[in-house]
Design goal:
Blueprint (H helix, E strand, L loop, with lengths): L1 E5 L1 H6 L3 E6 L14 H9 L3 H12 L5 E2 L4 E5 L10 H24 L10 E3 L11 H11 L4 E6 L4
Parallel strand pairs: 1-6, 2-4, 2-5, 5-6
Antiparallel strand pairs: 3-4
Helix pairs in contact: 4-5
Amino acid sequence: MKEVFGDIWDYHEKGNWIVITTNGTVKSNRECVMGRGIALQAKLKYPQLPLLLGKKIKEYGNFPHIFWGLGLISFPVKHHWMDKADPVLISTSCMTLFTGVTHLLQLHYSSTPDDSWDGSIYMVRPGCGNGGLLWKDVKPILEEYLDDRFIVVEKGTGK
């Protein structure tokens, strides 16, 4: 895992995959609650995303999901939107991201010669914003599972 400073959306605009921290709450209209942080930013950029994610959560559960064509990967940090982030869920999300999601992305890009992907996946510090956790507690969880293909972006310039 690497750490950089900047704006995660700048990496997305350059064609990189980014991780959106999410929760497992699906409203009666079948949309996932995406009301704060990077989830809200993603919702504003892609208004169809809450419904797409809500459907995936209802069908497959509160796990990381790939959104082909959007360059986004969901990453559950909470079971319910009002909860504090759950370190066990973050650990499970890391495992799934590292094993399942990266495998699917590698398969896709190895069979699609027109597309190029350097293997990098950018993410914010999961659970450390609206999730209420401290980076010093979350960082070791990520380090246990994620290699240098995963880049954690902290907002700012680092100065």
